[in-house]
Amino acid sequence: MKILDVVCSKGRTGFYFDDQRAIKAGAGHDGFTYIGKPVTDGFKAVRQAGEAVSVMIIVEDGQIGYGDCAAVQYSGAGGRDPLFLAEDFIPVIEKLIKPRLIGRELNSFKELAEEIDNLNDENGNRIHTALRYGVTQAILDAVAKAKKQLMCEVVADEYKTQVSETGIAIFTQSGDDRYNNVDKMIIKHAEVLPHGLINNVKEKLGENGELLLEYVGWLRDRIMKLKTTPDYAPVLHIDVYGTIGLAFKNDVDRIVEYFRQLEKAAAPLHLRIEGPVDVEEREQQIKVLAEITSRLHKENIKVEIVADEWCNTLQDIKDFADNGAGDMLQIKTPDLGGINNIIEAVLYCQEKGVGAYQGGTCNETNRSAEVCVHVAMATKPAQMLAKPGMGVDEGYMIVYNEMQRILAVRKSRK
């Protein structure tokens, strides 16, 4: 079965592009938007509508494979590729990618995905991560349709894995509405919650970590109060954006002692802390996270460390895993480019005995989230992110429902 055509359309994402540099420089809130001028190239406002490009691969029998090119909320920051605007990048697909795909046989996802993922533009630079992300999604769907399989089955066949017979734990994120949104998560029995967005020492963590301690205790009590089944015991997973390191001046002894307090506040629930420190340099970040992780293990403090900052690419994930820099690594799906890299990242973490968190961004689309569910069901990460958006319900619905479809279809064949 061959590719007949490639068609693109402009789309919206489930959240927004935010100019992180402008926000860090002091851009203030005005309702849901920000006051001030953008400073990152491509931005017309500090917060602007997220954009996507839907890629549709037309198969010669008339079927269509779908994928969505999308980039993270803080595009253009932290060494990432520039702001992803549909009008700028649809011509790249038309000129560079479409001619390469038309007429190709749809007999191997891995082969075609790796080719596109390694494609350079006319200047010799690798094409934008969002393009690689969305086009490889469409390739996976097109191959699945040509072979009359589910996308997860194609991945399992080509990477020698087994499709999960149960759902993958879903991690829901609260945004700043970290109290009301927790109630939604508990009502829906989310397995991992709440993210929390603890990105400010003074207002959210506390100068000595006291505000986070209070919040963790509130989470535990709220879950116990609202749960409707006695066995519901979600994992608490909180992203602190390096604020623990800021509050305790990256003093590992003080950080470890603080984790001992957090463990007690969360008990009997299990706690994960994402991004406890950010030392703003990759090699040093690996070293410090490895030290904290090792100390927690040695002192039998049962709080898991999740790596995020400076762990962006497939090579980063391998290096963090090799050095024990965290109990779990976030695999930020759009930042890895081709979804073939997500597959490789999850499998590598498992090989090294490190937890794989298949993450992503609130600024994705329903389609990219659905394809990521198939990747997760084929590779079995410890958890995956409910996405897109920050309202809990929509992202959880999209991810949960796609998992249930996969399980139901496969069960019906037995």
TrEMBL record:
Residues of the Methylaspartate ammonia-lyase C-terminal domain: 163-411
Active site: 332 (proton acceptor)
Cofactor: Mg(2+)
InterPro entries: Enolase-like_C_sf, Enolase-like_N, Me_Asp_am_lyase, MeAsp_NH4-lyase_C, MeAsp_NH4-lyase_N
A Pfam family per the record: MAAL_C
Subunit structure: Homodimer.
Name of the protein: methylaspartate ammonia-lyase
